[in-house]
Design a protein that fits this description.
150 residues; alpha/beta; five-stranded parallel beta sheet; 6 helices; 48% helix; globular
Length: 150
């Protein structure tokens, strides 16, 4: 698995924790920044990661900002991305099992580093169940592919 990871200024600390986790898990990743604690614009980090995942250069992406909300909104504007905001382990597992998400968003100001690591580890190791869920995900993809305004 190859993961693209990024954060804005509000997610730097958890991004570092998640990079350490992926090192421990032997997961290859590329860090798309940011490297400052001064205010930056989250779309500048979310969109490149989402594009790389959508293009197949990376299998998954992880985005961190203060709440995770801005990152998830921006990432979901990229065709082919199913980004979920998760602040608990149950949702992290369900979003992979049922929604086949390919990007995870987290909020550093909402959860601490220990919970962030647990969420990411579950999300990174959980497989899509397919079955009845595959039909639902396919409906989203079909709509996305048939709607020229997206």
């Amino acid at each position: 698995m190859k993961v693209a990871i990024a954060s804005d200024h509000g997610g730097i600390h958890i991004r570092q924790e998640l990079k350490a986790l992926m090192d421990e898990m032997g997961i290859q990743y590329e860090d798309f920044g940011c490297e400052c604690d001064t205010s930056v614009d989250y779309p500048d980090y979310a969109l490149p990661v989402a594009k790389k995942v959508a293009e197949g250069e990376f299998d998954r992406g992880i985005l961190v900002c203060g709440t995770g909300i801005g990152m998830s909104i921006a990432a979901n504007k990229v065709k082919g991305i199913r980004c979920a905001l998760a602040h608990d382990t149950f949702s992290a597992r369900a979003t992979r099992q049922h929604n086949d998400t390919n990007v995870l968003a987290l909020g550093e100001r909402v959860i601490g580093p220990g919970l962030a690591r647990d969420i990411a580890q579950i999300w990174l190791t959980t497989e899509f169940e397919g079955g009845r869920h595959e039909n639902r995900v396919n409906k989203i993809t079909e709509y996305e592919n048939s709607n020229p305004t997206l």
